[in-house]
Amino acid sequence: YRRRQTAWLEEALRRPEIASAPYLLASCHIPLLPRASEKDNPMWWTKYGRDNWGALLTAAGAQAVLVGHMHEYRINPADSTRSWAQIEGGGYECGERWFGSRKIVNSGYFPTVMDVRTENGKLVVEVWDVWHGKVVGRHEFGARRA
């Protein structure tokens, strides 16, 4: 199914309305980039997705990929290897979660809503902490390169 998803994405990125759009944002459930502590654990991220979908998105000049799965808000900014930032949304936990019998306390655990819009010629992704009703991250991206 991942090979079929890759073929679909490749075709979709060639569609005129997508290829010419000033902003390109993708979304998937499983992160394409791991945390340093997860790089050898494919349960928490998808190396296939990073290598295949990520490469296609970089070639297309995507600005960001919105992901979930890990229940914690974090961002991996774009870098010299890829055009896109990865913005990960939080889950249902409120400051803590359980991993088996171990309680993990982390202020990054809160349910999020990502408000995506264009504003003053930029793509804006605001990340809201729903429990506390406040913006915890604002990420702005210029138009993608031609």
**What proportion strand?**
25-35%
Please bin the fraction of helical residues. Answer: 10-25%
Based on CA inertia axes, which overall geometry fits?
Answer: globular
Q: Assembly state here?
A: single chain
Radius of gyration: 16 Å
Work out the number of β strands.
9
Widest sheet: strand ordering: 1-2-4-3
Q: How far is it from the N-terminal to the C-terminal residue, by CA?
A: 31 Å
Helical stretch tally: 3
Order of helix and strand elements from N to C terminus: HHEHEEEEEEEE
Main sheet characteristics: 4 strands, mixed
Topology of this structure?
Elements: H1 2-14, H2 16-19, E1 25-27, H3 47-60, E2 64-67, E3 74-76, E4 85-88, E5 96-99, E6 102-105, E7 112-119, E8 122-129, E9 134-141
Helix pairs in contact: 1-3
Describe it.
- The protein is built from three helices and nine strands.
- With 146 residues, the chain is α/β, with parallel strands linked by helices.
- Helix 1 (2-14) packs parallel to helix 3.
- The longest helix has 14 residues, at 47-60.
- The model has no long low-confidence stretch (mean pLDDT 89).
